[in-house]
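WARN no homologs supplied; continuing
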Amino acid sequence: TITNTGAVDPAAATNLAISEIHYHPVDGVAEEFIELVKIGTRPIDLTGARFAAGVQFDFSTGSITTLEPGARLLLVENRTAFEARYGAGKPIAGTFAAATRLSNNGDRITLLDRAGATIADFSYGEILPWPPEADGLGWSLTLIRPELRPDPAIAANWRPSRRFLFPAPPH
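OK structure emitted
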């Protein structure tokens, strides 16, 4: 049983993980996203946490600044394009500038806490051993068992998403 005492911890490497990256959507459309998941049993405050590499985003300016245990949030490149593809009502904390979009050829992603300490700092790739399905073929990279905090720099800790993210063309 989880008991919420009202205490909120700051975001840190021990309680927040990057759980999914959609870096190369089909046809290169502006539907990129990064998903984060809250790990552990206490809520966290995202204020001051920020992406410093890969994309630029400061959670202090986001629409979601607190995450409950098990909750997920999204950062998207283009909210209109994202919602047109995946529907409205998703937990979108904000958008990152298209000028800082994720590279289709692999990129470094750095997420820092409010004090500037590293929450996550790793590079993903587009070729094996990284899941090639995520490279423009309709799937995203999904971290395997993020609650165990696996090293995101190791390609074997990622798999293609279970769901094809680009709808099949009508018949």
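The first helix runs from residue 79 to 86.
OK
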